[in-house]
Amino acid sequence: MRIATISGTCSEVGKTTLVCELLERLPGWAAVKVTRGHMRSCGRDPETCCVSHLLGEEPRVFSDRAITDVPGKDTARYWEAGASAVRWVVAASGQELDGLRRALDELDGAPGVLVEGNRIVRGCRPALALMVARPDQREVKATARRILDHVDALYVPDPSAVRDPAELVGAEPGTRSWPVWGPDDLDRIAARLA
Question: What is the third-level CATH fold of 2-193?
Answer without folding.
Answer: Rossmann fold (3.40.50)
